[in-house]
Design brief:
By secondary structure, the protein is α+β, with helices and mostly antiparallel strands. The chain folds into three domains: 90 residues, no CATH class; 89 residues, PDZ domain (Pdz3 Domain, Roll), CATH 2.30.42; 201 residues, 2-enoyl-CoA Hydratase, Chain A, domain 1 (Alpha-Beta Complex). The chain is built from 14 helices and 19 strands. Strands 10-11-12-15-16-19 form a six-stranded mixed β-sheet, with helices on both faces. α2 packs across α3. The two termini are 40 Å apart.
Length: 407
């Protein structure tokens, strides 16, 4: 699904990409020398490119036109989109992706929060397509898909040959149709083949519950609505008379950075660091500090309450930002499993009216400077989940959180 931060459009990058497209389209119909000359002379400032460097591109173009058995089925525009996709993927970053018209429409559906498919977030981890998390009540969750499952085949296509956007395109489909996906799960003796019936996916956001004298807030994603919904849940917690809180971020693949920033501010005094955006020297680092809501300290008094955050391999991105801030600022203990490790900032850039580029522009650092992309978060209490507990419907991680809060 891949829906990290959908921020403002960067017109400088958009302009550059549009210029490149125009170069390619204009060049495709000229003589070869004219093509090379156009690309070299019109290259953006700071880009040093020569005719010799471009010759292999045009040679491949010519060979495909002259020799490929089905060359007439691939039009010029499709070749150009493919070339730009290759340009984006050459960065070696699985989150930097160019979306041609069809893929762009699908991605916009993700942002809107509803689509047809199986309902699971996927990403590249350790060079393999990996399930970040199945969405709550989705066909994937009901089929038993788990965070950390590796995808090795989609129908008859090897996943090793696919990027995230290509895999998403194969997995998506009309509600009621089926897709066969083969997974590799740690500890399983052999691959798991699942035929999953697609459905209409509505991304869930929040649920609340109580466990004796403990209040539980389960946050499933960080959408634009999450801060308001979380504020309402936190108000209910304060009105409940309870002083022990569990925030369940398991299987939460993230979402909007601003949502994590706002929610973190409910727990921290003004000025405390929640996360730092590190632009790798291409801009001044941006430190997002608490807005100072600090409602628990103001309501209960300092340290007169307890918080535990549940995390697992499906906790990623904005979920890791919130969990890392609460852990390192001394607000909460983390219980569960090591998080996914998706700590990068993407910006969505409109390239043409019906295409876009999702580009990684920064890395997220916790208040202590820990790079989430490198290693995720380590819980204070590691609690593995084994199959017998799943079969018996025993939530050992939740039980551990309750035990810690009741000490």
């Amino acid at each position: 699904m891949n829906k990290e931060n959908i921020p403002k459009i960067s017109y400088s990058i958009a302009g550059l990409a549009v210029v490149i497209i125009i170069f390619l389209i204009g060049s495709a119909y000229g003589e070869e020398k004219g093509k090379n000359k156009a690309l070299v002379q019109l290259a953006p400032a700071g880009v040093n490119i020569t005719n010799a460097q471009l010759e292999p591109f045009w040679k491949v173009w010519s060979v495909l036109s002259d020799k490929y058995v089905e060359a007439t089925t691939t039009d010029t525009q499709k070749r150009i989109w493919g070339a730009i996709q290759g340009l984006a993927s050459s960065q070696g970053d699985p989150y930097t992706v160019f979306f041609p018209p069809v893929e762009n429409k699908m991605f916009q559906g993700d942002i809107a929060g509803n689509f047809e498919g199986v309902g699971m977030e996927i990403a590249i981890k350790d060079k393999m397509l990996t399930v970040v998390a199945p969405l709550k009540n989705s066909p994937a969750e009901k089929a038993g898909v788990m965070p950390g499952d590796k995808i090795i085949k989609i129908e008859d296509k090897l996943a090793s040959d696919l990027g995230v956007d290509q895999a998403v395109k194969l997995i998506r489909g009309a509600s009621g149709t089926k897709v066969k996906i083969t997974f590799l799960r740690e500890g399983a003796g052999q691959p798991l083949e699942k035929s999953i019936t697609r459905g209409v996916i509505d991304i869930p956001t929040i649920e609340t519950d109580t466990k004796s004298d403990i209040y539980v807030i389960r946050l499933f994603s960080f959408t634009a609505q999450s801060p308001d919904l979380f504020r309402g849940a936190l108000k209910s917690f304060l009105q409940s008379g309870k002083s022990k809180l569990i925030i369940d971020l398991r299987g939460n693949p993230g979402g909007y950075l601003d949502a994590a920033w706002d929610i973190g501010s409910w727990f921290l005094p003004a000025g405390k660091t929640i996360v730092t955006e590190d632009f790798g020297g291409k801009g001044e680092n941006k430190v997002l500090r608490s807005k100072g809501y600090d409602v628990l300290n103001k309501y209960f008094g300092t340290n007169n309450y307890k918080v535990v955050v549940l995390v697992d391999a499906g906790s990623a991105s904005a979920a890791e930002i919130l969990a890392g801030a609460l852990q390192e600022q001394g607000v909460a203990k983390l219980v569960g499993l090591k998080t996914f490790g998706k700590g990068s900032v993407q910006e969505l850039v409109d390239i043409t009216p019906d295409t876009s580029l999702k580009v990684t522009i920064a890395r997220w650092l916790t208040p202590s400077g820990h790079n989430l992309s490198h290693d995720g978060l380590n819980p204070d209490y590691v609690v593995p989940v084994v199959q017998k507990d799943i079969d018996a419907k025993v939530d050992v991680q939740l039980n551990k959180a309750i035990e810690i809060l009741n000490k």
